[in-house]
Amino acid sequence: MPKVFIDGQEIVAAEGATVLETALAADIYIPYLCYHPDLSTFGGCRVCMVDINGKLVTACRAVVSEGMVVLTDTPDVSLVRRVTVEMILANHNPDCQSCGRNHDCTLQEVSAYVGITEENLAKLRRSAREIPSDTSNPFFKMDHTRCILCGICVRTCQEINGVSAIDFSHRGTGTKVSALAGKPLAESKCVACGECVERCPTGALARKNNINPAREVQTVCTYCGCGCGIYLGVRGNEVMRVRGNAASPVNEGDLCVKGRFGFQFINHPDRLTTPLIKRNGLFEEASWEEALDLVASKFVETKEKYGAEALGGLASARVTNEDNYLFQKLLRSLGSNSIDCCARL
Questions:
Q1: What is the pLDDT of residue 139?
Q2: What mean pLDDT is reported for the chain?
């Protein structure tokens, strides 16, 4: 395991690790925009520039070697970083207050670190890119005026899900991220999993109806039998947001479209909270005792008239394993093997 020197500190690095990974693991901050620990390195933003043995190198792509001397904050390094961030901000939407990632934006963090001031911005000919936002997806939107072309969304779609629904298109100042042939996301092969939204460092990809939760509750997704670990972002008595639990061995933080965005049913006004029994052609509220007595009587009636195999049951992944076990025991005790569940993938 090679020993390297970062800002005078001797650090034992992992074999094959990059300078950026080694520094971050040692709690030494190096600003970056296009790097993400889940993805391959891109080296496109040039913000993680450092001095390695007297040469300016991108830390995210430089592999550590024995005796390497790294300086993260020399005058030349600071100048390169500041000019790079200035060029990014020159075409970036200046309205941060209405951005869904305000105060949770990597670009804001990096701008503050490299020392962007009002004087820096005043000398720039700032003009936000006039590209219409893509709001076709029902769960999130793509705002090109906030995109910094870091490529994180592109690599996420390729490497995490293997869908490759989006990529860089056009050239030069017209470069943007889009679906094939410039189609709206809703008309592309995007599966709306939201993994790109989760990793976007700015507000270029943001949830619709984005409301910050007050607290988070760790739980398990109930949509299928996989058992993905999730955190529910709660505000009052409502779920505002869902994110994957990176520590879960099942999904390692990844989620599908249902797990990430399909939580509106919890507080939906049409959700049933009491049993309904049809009387005279109309559904009326009833007690659980009435409903269960009716179901039991219909079971007996059907079994006597058509036989046990005329009975069947559909279980749900939204109840516990114990409840599902008892449900199948109930059906089998009645003589039926016709049991299925929505968790069967």
A1: 95
A2: 92
Look at the domain 215-267 and name its fold.
Answer: N-terminal domain of TfIIb (2.20.25)
Measured from the Cβ of residue 327, the count of other Cβ atoms closer than 10 Å reads 17
CA separation for the pair 128, 178 (Å, rounded): 18
Contact 85, 116 (CB under 8 A): yes
Q: What topology is assigned to 3-121 in CATH? A: Ubiquitin-like (UB roll) (3.10.20)
Q: What angle do CA 93, 99, 121 make, to 5 degrees?
A: 35
Residue 128 · residue 145 · CB < 8 Å? yes
Instruction: Please answer whether residues 227 and 201 qualify as being in contact, where contact means their C-beta atoms are separated by less than 8 angstroms.
Output: no
In the predicted model, is pLDDT for residue 128 greater than 70? no
Q: What is the pLDDT of residue 291?
A: 95
- How are beta strands 205-207 and 176-179 bridged, if at all? unpaired
Give CATH for domain 129-207. 3.30.70.20
Q: What is the pLDDT of residues 181-204, one digit of tens each?
A: 999 999 999 999 999 999 999 999
146-164 mean pLDDT: 95
Angle between helices 75-90 and 106-114 (to 10 degrees): 140
Question: 276-341 — its CATH code?
Answer: 3.40.50.740
The residue among 193, 235, 192 whose CA lies nearest residue 214 is 235
Give the percent of the chain with pLDDT over 70.
99
Residue 128 CB-density burial (10 A; 0-12 exposed, 13-18 middle, 19+ buried): middle
